[in-house]
Structure formats: structure tokens, C-alpha cells
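To: structure subgroup
Subject: Chain for Friday's discussion

All,

I'm putting the inputs and outputs inline so they're searchable in the archive.
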Amino acid sequence: MNLREMLEENKIYISDGAWGTELAKKGIGPGKCPELLNVENRKVLDEIALSYVEAGANFILTNTFGGNPYKLRKYGVEDRLEELNEAGVRISKDAAEGRALVLGSIGPSGEFLAPLGLVTKKEMIAGFVRQVQAFIAGGADAVIIESMTDLNEILCALKAVKDNSDYGVICSMTFDKGLQGYATMMGVKPADAVHALEKAGAEIVGSNCGWGIEEIIEVARIMRAETQLPLWFKPNAGMPELIDGETVYRHTPEYMASKIPELIDAGAKVVGGCCGSTPDHIRKIREIVNAINILNQPD
């Protein structure tokens, strides 16, 4: 079953949890190119990917979030883009073994589009096309464009996918809560994001990262009022706090799971976790979703 077929089913699905904070727990700190781990320390990524499959995730992502030319250039490895992205897909495919769909992850470029920055839309699209081609070579099942804050950039990434593959595409932006309501750091409101992404051909839209699950529920309600597209949400395990020199996320697996029915009522089709979430979070969410799916089965 592919992404589009799954979205037509009368079921709730589960994505994986965080990768970055899981890597940090394994001693992989900042300062190193995360995508280089795909070829230099595959074992640690194998463990993370497999842990989410065994926790019950229907979708697992790839360690390719920063695999675009702009971020890789900062580490001096832009010329290895295809190798690193393809390797990231193969790691998740090997862990999934057909039990979960593998989503090639595209994250922000870290650059501003002209006229705010120096990168043109044509150049931005071309960079994302390279990632898409590597996903195809690695055998990804679909694509997730995530953690985006600039509407024009996510539209560039979406165009790169739609024009160069037959992949189903999930588009997820990161919203913060301010005095004027929810918006990305670039000022994009959830309703505007939904309308533009649906028009551009996204199969599923949503939000990840940002705050915690309570705020994601509010974003879900806003989005559901604007579209009938399936919705995707991966909240953080709360806001990060620095305690005794360590970053702590206070939302336990039990707490996040307790909020999942409310998130589903708000419109979610796919639920998972972002920063601070773990395989234990996904395991608890799986228990809740299983019960809901059983209740939703026709007599």
C-alpha cells in the first residue's frame, strides 16, 4: 500500500518520533554533519530507525533533513549529496522491511530566497531536485517536506518533488504562538499555508516541531477549518528546558498519548512526535491509535 492509498483508508496512522534528540542521547552531539553518519556511523542510525518500526510507526523518516546542497556545503561535502541522501534512504528501508513506509526527509535549506537572500527560486528548486533524485535511487516510498517556515521555500521543494517524481508528498510547517496567533518565523499563518500547499499539489499538510501537543491541537483545528486534505502532526514532547546543563522535554509518553484523541478529533490523520519524543512515546501513541481504529471499523 502506498501513501495515497493509505490516506484513503478510514484509519489513523502513526509516524516516527525524533531522530536528532535520539542521536544526542547516543553521544552524537552538534558540530558534525548529521548526514555523514549515513556512511560513517550507520549502526547508530540503524538502531534508531528500527526502534521506531518496532514501536509501531507506519511511517519512518530518513536521516536526510539537512541533505540539501546549501547545508552540506557548510561541511564541505556538497559533492557527496547524492551518496549521503541515497544512503539515508537505504538505512530506513532496511529497518522498515516492508512494515513501514519510508519518507525521504527534506528540511529547510538554511538560506533566504531572493530578494531577502541571494538564492533564486530556480537555484533552490534545483538543489531539492538533487535530493529527490537520490530518494528515487534509494527506493523511498514518499517524501516529507518538514520544519519549513518560508512558504516560498516549501513551494520550491514541493515543485521539485512533483515535477521529478510520482511521489506522494507531505508538507509540514513549523508554527509558533504569538500575540497575533499562530505563524511561522517568516510570518506564514496556518490557513495561508494550507491554501497554497493544497493548490500546489500536496497530498497531506500539517505541522511539526514548534511547541508541544496542546499548541499543535490548536493548529490542527485551524487547518481543518480550511481544508479537507488529510492532516499530519508531529509535536515536540513539550518545550525544551535546560536543567543542570541538559536539555529536557517534560511531556512523557503517557501524557502525549493521553492528548492523541483530542488531536485526532481536531482533524489529524497521521500523528507522531518531533523533538524530545522517543520510541516509548510512539509505542504509547500506538496503543491509543489501535483502540481508536478498532472503534472506527464498520460493523
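Points worth raising on Friday:
The longest strand covers residues 142-148.
The chain has one domain: 3-295.

D.
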